[in-house]
């Protein structure tokens, strides 16, 4: 079981605009999709697509929270959810067909609720926990670190204070992208990830966008991504992590797991996001990945 715990769940609205985005002007939306959103649900979709056992965990609120529950159930994804005051946030993904990357507009979400989090942690099933995404507003770094310690050695995919707390609490793995690693260490490179691992003992799965990913731990390995036509890159990092955790939980060696992970991230970008993910496409891309051992 891979438990995808997201501290700040959302409703993700993907809007396909009728023309290139121009600030200050009217745009019409010929196509819209709404999904139970956040990094954890995206990760869970990929694990399930490959045939793994998974569930989504987090705190929801208000009418949007009820909508989130309904959407998750409609997909057939298992959820361990607690309610709090306020309103689950909405995140808007604007696709205009012209920009290389969508425009994303994310609301803040409901405030951190220590009681709801405690109830949630008490209900989590046994399994590998991946804590994914930004922190709820008002989350104290020490409260987040305490939650991570209570979870044992979780995987953490966050940024800023969340990533720092993961290092300080001795997470089992962190998954920053290059910008997030640069904010943490001053450089978003494999060399800085090596130094971080030496200092903290926390392995790093460094995602590098179209360039692939690198794993830095007791072993160091880099995988170059195949070239694909990018339709929607949103969720590619989540897809990469989901495939990596799935493969490692099945006992796959590091190289095979990292190659599948990079292929899954590329497949996500090619197919248009986690809702359109096809594991067969990811597996077909694996031979087009390239493995190297960084100097």
From TrEMBL:
User: What's the protein called, per UniProt?
Assistant: 1-phosphofructokinase family hexose kinase
Looking up InterPro entries in the UniProt record yields: Carboh/pur_kinase_PfkB_CS (IPR002173), PfkB_dom (IPR011611), Ribo/fructo_kinase (IPR002139), Ribokinase-like (IPR029056), Tagatose/fructose_Pkinase (IPR017583)
Record's keyword terms, sorted: ATP-binding, Kinase, Nucleotide-binding, Transferase
**Similarity field:** Belongs to the carbohydrate kinase PfkB family.
Which residues constitute the signal peptide according to the record?
A: none
**What PROSITE patterns does the entry give?**
PFKB_KINASES_2
Pfam families, alphabetized: PfkB
Q: Which residues form the Carbohydrate kinase PfkB domain?
A: 21-270
Q: Which domain of life does the UniProt lineage start with?
A: Bacteria
């Amino acid at each position: 079981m891979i438990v995808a715990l997201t501290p700040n769940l959302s409703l993700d609205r993907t809007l396909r605009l009728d023309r290139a985005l121009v600030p200050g002007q009217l745009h019409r939306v010929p196509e819209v999709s709404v999904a139970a959103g956040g990094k954890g649900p995206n990760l869970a979709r990929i694990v399930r697509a490959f045939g793994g056992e998974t569930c989504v965990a987090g705190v929801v609120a208000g009418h949007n929270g009820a909508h989130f529950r309904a959407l998750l159930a409609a997909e057939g994804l298992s959820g361990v959810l607690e309610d709090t005051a306020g309103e689950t946030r909405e995140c808007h993904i604007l696709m205009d067909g012209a920009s290389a990357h969508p425009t994303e507009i994310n609301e803040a979400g409901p405030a951190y609720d220590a009681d709801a989090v405690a109830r949630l942690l008490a209900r989590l099933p046994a399994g590998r926990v991946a804590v994914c995404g930004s922190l709820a507003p008002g989350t104290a770094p020490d409260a987040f670190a305490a939650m991570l310690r209570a979870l044992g050695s979780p995987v953490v995919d966050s940024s800023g204070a969340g990533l720092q707390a993961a290092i300080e609490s001795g997470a089992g793995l962190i998954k920053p992208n290059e910008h997030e690693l640069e904010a943490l260490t001053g450089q978003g490179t494999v060399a800085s990830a090596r130094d971080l691992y030496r200092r903290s003992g926390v392995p790093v799965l460094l995602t590098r966008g179209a360039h692939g990913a690198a794993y830095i731990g007791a072993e160091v390995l880099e995988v170059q991504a195949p070239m694909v036509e990018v339709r929607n890159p949103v969720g590619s990092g989540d897809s990469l992590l989901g495939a990596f955790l799935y493969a490692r939980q099945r006992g796959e060696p590091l190289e095979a797991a990292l190659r599948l992970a990079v292929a899954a991230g590329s497949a996500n970008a090619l197919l248009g996001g986690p809702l359109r993910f096809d594991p067969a496409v990811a597996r077909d891309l694996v031979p087009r990945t390239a493995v190297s051992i960084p100097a």
